[in-house]
Structure formats: C-alpha cells, structure tokens
Amino acid sequence: MVPLSLSLDPRSATPLHRQLYEEIRAAVLAGRLSAGARLPSTRALAADLDISRNTVAGAFDQLVAEGYIEGRPGAGTFVAKELPDQLLRVSSSTRTRRPSGAPAAQLSKRGRMLAATPVAPAARDGASPCAFRPGIPALDAFPRELWSRIAARQYRQSRFDLFSYGNPAGHPPLRRAIAEYLRAARGVNCSWEQVIVTSGSQQALDLGARVLLDAGDTAWVEDPGYFGARGAWTAAGVRCASIPVDAEGLNVAHGESSAPEARMAYVSPSHQYPLGVTMSLARRMALLAWARRRGAWIAEDDYDSEFRYAGRPLAALQGLDTAGRVIYIGTFSKVLFPALRLGYMVVPDGTVDAFAAARALSDRHPPGPSQALVAEFLAEGHFARHIRRMRTLYGERQAALVSAARREWQGLLEVSRADSGMHLVAWLSNGMSDRGASQRAAAAGISAPPLSAYYHAAAARPALLLGYSSITARKIHEGARRLAAAMIN
C-alpha cells in the first residue's frame, strides 16, 4: 500500500471531498502514485485525515468514474493502469516530452511569433484587486445596483434585433453617445460614423496594424511603453522601432533619425504608460507634422485620461490633427470595468469601411445587449457622474499612497504625487534592482511590476509601478508596510 501525503484545508471554500479528489488526481498525473499502486481503504484514509468516511467515498467515486482509480472486489482500490488522459499529463516533465524524431513545434511561423510575444510583465493569473496591481479600476465603488437596474430594463424593453447579428462597427446609439462624449470631454473632432466599437483597446491596436500596415513595415513604439501595442504589431509582422520617452513624451527627432521609414507611431500623449509624463505641445505638433509629411499614421492611446486631478483633462492629440492621420483609441476597461470588454476607436474619414470590414472578420460584431446598456449609461448622464466620483476617489487614494510612502519607505523608495493616472512610479533609492524588488514584493503577496520590464532598448532607472485605484486607503497602508518589510528582509 502506498502512503499518501495529503493536505486538506477545512477552512477552504472548496468542499473536502473535492480537495481530496484533486490531491489524489494530481498525485496520479504527476507520477507520485504509479499505475497499479494500491490506495488506503476509505475507512483508513478517513481516520488518517480525520474526516468523514462518506467524504472519502465521494472523492473515490469521482476518481473511479473518471478512470483514475479502480476497485477490485476483495482486493482494494488501485491506481488505474491506463489513465484517461495519459497523453495530456499535467506535469511539466510530461508536457515537454515528445516522440523521438518529432519536430520541435507544429506551429506556423506566425504561431511561434505569437507564442513568443510578451503580453504583460505582470502576472497573468487574472487581475483581481490587490496592493499595488496597476491598471485596475475601483471595482468596489462601481454602481452595481444602478447598472443592474439599467440592464434589467434593457433586457425587458430591448428589440429583438439586439439579440441577433449587429453592425460590425457597433450599435449606432452607442457610437453616437461615444462621439458626443469625446467631442465634449476630450476635444476629439469626429462624427459618430467614424466611431468603431471594439473589444477593448487591444483589438483596436490589432485592427490598426492589419488595416494600415503591411508585414515588414516599421512602426514607432514608446520606450518604455505598453506591451500590448508592441505585441499587436509584432504579431502582424511589423518591425517595432523603440523610440525613447523623456519628460516631454516620445522623442520625435530621435524617431525621425533612427527610423525615418516608419509608417505609424504609437503614443499615449495625455498620460504616458508607464512613466506618466504628458507629451508637450511642441512634441505633439512635431509628431503631427511628421505624419502629415510622411503620409504616416499615429495611434493615440487615451487609456485613462479622464483621471486628472489638477485642472481639466488635457485635450486629445486627435483634436489638433488637420490631415486625418490620427487613429484615436479609448476603452471602457479603465473607467467602468475590464470584464465589459468594450472599447472604441475613432478612425479618419475614408478608412471607416475598411475598419468595419476588418472588425467583422475579427469577431463579427460587439455584443449587442452590452453595447445598448453602455449607450443608456452614457445617455442618461450616469457615466459622467461616475467619472467625477472616481476622479475624487482616486485622488484620495493617491494621496493615501504618497502618505504611506513617506512614512514607510524612507531610504527605500521615492514617490511623488502625480497630476493624473491610476498608478505612481516609485523610484528605488537603495541600490536594489527593480526586478529583485518586484520578486520580493511578490513573495509578500504584493503586486509591483518592475519598470525595467517595460523597456526594450533604452536604459532604465530602477523603479516599481504601484497602482492605487483599486484598493482602499486601509489596504494601501497595509500594503506599504508589507512592501517595506519585504524589501528590508
């Protein structure tokens, strides 16, 4: 009989029989329980784990039903000799094993490129709020009851066409509401027909590359910058030229000298990600002049410009464009919630049909009921009120982070207030590498991505990105103490 080393947590929300099932299944698949090995009886295992025999029997019944173990009358219970997913073992050693002589990869060249393209330097295991994960809005302050009432009304009163196939460019009432909002709040010069509704800003970046660039073309990307832009264009076969960012934003002169053949530039001018700088007017005009002169395009990512705490939000770069060279990109992920998966792009006249066709080929159209719900949320004024509330709340949470930094991080990290955004850059002052500091933070349950992970070519001053928008002031102060302890020990 094989001894079992099992660990069950009676305080877990997962039932004990499910925990036991998963522990034994994992041991079988990892090879710790070999084929044909005899298991303890349900009575013995229940006594050993101090749980009900019925709990053990329930776990065994599930394992038998799925073919992982088998009962032999008069002999006991054994690990099955032939496992149901023997070719799909979950252990890492099995995943990398392949038959002798088999090719290293069956992926296409594009597939291999996609697999090797970084998605984000932060963990990929979801994006639940925690100290100090950047880019997550205040989900605790979202008006869920109001949202639910509008959704219920929408489903009761909606016409059948919302539940059928829709316009690839998006629900017209939502496009009208977006255009009206952008003209008033962001200084964007557009008609509603120029608005294309997307599945977040990432799809907008992908569409921009596929509609306006060819494989082998060159595009400028900010360095440091957003991984999603570089990833979308790299996946489309576009060569990304890393252009440094300084206190005035993207260095246009450097781009013109280092990659004069570029056909597109990606910028986040109102609040650069991740440094948080604002592109100066001189740089904006230089970038627009370059695009007009070269017949190039500019992708303006306006991802969190609503959250400005000193004065009014800055007008969008697109509003200064007189030549129709800017593709304006926005998202509801930061201002409402990420799971909504709705964003938008404002495209120049003459490209609308091409973008709508590409949108249709990508995933046909955005979800109709969700679009109608957001359209009503905007039209009834709830969106504007929500933005005002969040601007106040985020200002308070940023102040809490700066206060906690001054108290807890003396000699470790330097943090200053910012005029806008959802995160702060914390500069390391103790000589530690930011990747090392980030790893220590992660071990303490703190999410603090290293700034160097966002750089591609330029040298990086070590720093951490600290988000504050998704957590309360109390959790900010708790997180600050834990981060300090992690960096000192």
Topology record:
Elements: H1 16-30, E1 38-39, H2 42-49, H3 53-66, E2 69-72, E3 76-79, H4 92-95, H5 109-116, H6 144-157, H7 172-185, E4 195-198, H8 200-212, E5 218-223, H9 227-235, E6 239-246, E7 249-250, H10 252-258, E8 264-267, H11 281-294, E9 297-301, E10 326-331, E11 343-346, H12 352-363, H13 368-379, H14 382-408, E12 413-414, E13 423-428, H15 434-443, E14 463-467, H16 473-488
Parallel strand pairs: 5-6, 5-8, 8-9, 9-10
Antiparallel strand pairs: 1-3, 2-3, 4-11, 6-7, 10-11, 12-13, 13-14
Helix pairs in contact: 1-3, 2-3, 6-13, 7-13, 8-9, 8-12, 14-16, 15-16
Structural description of this entry:
- With 489 residues, the chain is of the alpha/beta class.
- The chain folds into 3 domains: 73 residues, Arc Repressor Mutant, subunit A; 242 residues, Aspartate Aminotransferase, domain 2 (3-Layer(aba) Sandwich), CATH 3.40.640.10; 102 residues, Aspartate Aminotransferase, domain 1 (Alpha-Beta Complex), CATH 3.90.1150.
- The protein has 16 helices and 14 strands.
- It has an 8-stranded mixed beta sheet, with helices on both faces. Strands 1-3-2 form a 3-stranded antiparallel beta sheet.
- Helix 2 packs across helix 3, helix 6 crosses helix 13 and helix 15 crosses helix 16.
- The two termini are 44 Å apart.
- About 4% of the residues have low confidence.
